[in-house]
């Protein structure tokens, strides 16, 4: 193998996986033109066309797919071998690519990540915020954060927060103008803040549970969002009712700034977990797991 072939083979695997010179170049740290030139040089040396190019896309040829099939386990083994060298270092180093939800980024990560970065100056973390259920393996991520009930069975999952009830809350001022709902169906007569699911585009119905009975209620209101910060601000302004996790609003309920209704119908939602593939992890990721792990006080 000639000098530079290993780098070019690794770059080819990224291009074949992402099917984009632009995305692959950003991941590798080259310009798209330099990456394209390197791929043509690799093809010339091998005497085989590995990538089918059009003006809008790039995809592996049959020969390219065969090569990719052989390369992936070899590159994975090489990456694990290099990662194992981290055990000889005194402190964790390296890069971590993490995908997470908007909710987890503004609560769990905003609370704990700054201290982790100060304590581990040789670790670099790239956080991608996406409320869709991202495939971390296909996306090239080291780990992800999502609700516990949505983690695949073949992943290692670490709890980051406890489960929590969903509370229907409004301000005292709102309830001066509107009667308190006595049943979930009464919400159809209220101004409710609704959420649209990113993955399906569906406006999410409000779910309630009591004594084994589950009710889904579709409500009306002036605002539909896919962002909890905007929803929370609108609820706290008195413009409508909304569903929020109990631990996020416990203090406001306790001091009277918000009023919780329909408590006997409140369902429980799974707390967020950090998850990663069932394989050897780097010391950097192990340190992050320990920093974010939920510890029951």
Describe this structure in words.
With 297 residues, the chain is of the alpha+beta class. 38% of the residues lie in helices and 23% in strands. The longest helix has 23 residues, at 62-84. The radius of gyration is 24 Å and the shape is elongated.
How many beta-strand runs?
15
The amount of helix comes to: 25-40%
How many alpha or pi helices?
9
Largest sheet: 5 strands, mixed
Q: Flag low-confidence runs.
A: none
Q: What is the radius of gyration computed over CA atoms, rounded to a whole number of angstroms?
A: 24 Å
Q: What is the SS-derived class?
A: alpha+beta
Strand order of the largest sheet: 4-3-5-15-6
Strand content: 15-25%
Distance between the termini: 56 Å
Shape: elongated
Q: Kindly report the average pLDDT value.
A: 89
Q: Secondary-structure element sequence?
A: HHHEEHEHEEEEHEEEEHEHEEEH
Task: Give a concise summary.
Helices cover 38% and strands 23% of the residues.
List strands and helices in order, with pairings.
Layout: H1 5-18, H2 21-28, H3 32-46, E1 51-53, E2 58-60, H4 62-84, E3 94-100, H5 102-119, E4 123-129, E5 143-147, E6 155-159, E7 164-170, H6 172-177, E8 193-195, E9 206-210, E10 213-217, E11 223-225, H7 228-236, E12 242-245, H8 246-254, E13 259-261, E14 268-269, E15 272-277, H9 283-292
Parallel strand pairs: 3-4, 3-5, 8-11
Antiparallel strand pairs: 1-2, 5-15, 6-15, 7-12, 7-13, 7-14, 9-10
Helix pairs in contact: 1-2, 1-3, 1-4, 2-3
